[in-house]
Amino acid sequence: MEEEISHHCKSLKLTEEEQQEYYLKEEEITFSHDISNSCLVALVAADREVNKGAFKATMTRLWNGEGGITFKDLGRNKFLLEFHNSTVRTRVLTGRPWSFDRNLICIQECKGRLALKDIDFSLEPFWLQLQDLPFATMNKRTSEKLGTSAGKVIMVDVDEKGRAWGEVLRVKVMIDLSKPLTRGCVINVGDARSWIPFKYEKLPSFCYYCGIVLHTHHRCSRHFSDGSTHTKSPLQYGPWLRADPPQNPNHYKTHSNSPEGKTTGNGRQANSDDQESDFGGNNLSQKSADFSPLDPCDPVHPNSTLEKNSEGEDLVSTVKKKQPQLVLRGHQLEMSGPHFPTGNQTRCVWTPI
């Protein structure tokens, strides 16, 4: 629609009044520019329009932003988030990626000199886990080298000695959402050649056919254009690309006061894709045994553990217990009169409910 309008405007012949150009002075835009520094812009990458009320209520609880966040609608699944507390804003940025109803929330800083149509939502940070690496290769230099195959490296999970020893090697990378997820890479150590599989922490719903995060395979235009909707060929992507954040990452030991470095819990996010079937009707995977029936992305369960940050930290970690309520079992009546068996004497009668 925007391209059609832009193309149409180029063919217009402007009148003399329309050709008049207006120059805005710096002091005329400073106020709005300052406010934009406390704002973020969010896009919910969903196939359908999300419930705005549920989104605002859920994310306010999730970010512990009661009274500190103002939501403004910017069109279909787009929101301007104004933070009245810089700490909450920082927490939202460093805790990316976030999801709502299993759909990725693309969050970008609000730059006052950019129009909404010019904001790029195609980049989002993810923690990437490199599996099955030899211990000798688990260091910062190797992490940065291999991580570039998935995106721009932001940081590496290493200890104070620069080592990334652990079950997996973790790299935080900026993912290009317009491209398929990178499933792994091939390394050569001496004469040994190995395939290193990649997994992504807090990975929301994505396409099992083309590997794009911004839609599911049920809505994949490439899948339908290829005419493979009725084939039983194995999908090239699946829920096996998801990973749980570790409970004790390396950089937690050296940067425990940093919002990037705290972690508790296993960081499990519920995703509808976990039990989806392939196009032949076969079950792709079963949810893990420790999966809670309370969906952390589901606003129907406001008291459950809703979300964790990129290192697995519980942001809303308690389940509120219902306060005991008195149950009305009946009521007591005082009855008297000439037709009552006790005459005019008053008698108390208990009537159960």
TrEMBL record:
PANTHER family: GLYCINE-RICH CELL WALL STRUCTURAL PROTEIN 1.8-LIKE, ZINC FINGER, CCHC-TYPE-LIKE PROTEIN. It comes from Juglans regia (English walnut). Residues 38-108 form the DUF4283 domain. Residues 249-272, 280-289 have a biased composition (Polar residues). Residues 223-321 are annotated as: Disordered. This is Uncharacterized protein LOC118348645. InterPro entries: At4g02000-like (IPR040256), DUF4283 (IPR025558), Zn_knuckle_CX2CX4HX4C (IPR025836). Residues 175-221 form the Zinc knuckle CX2CX4HX4C domain. Pfam families: DUF4283, zf-CCHC_4. It comes from the Eukaryota.
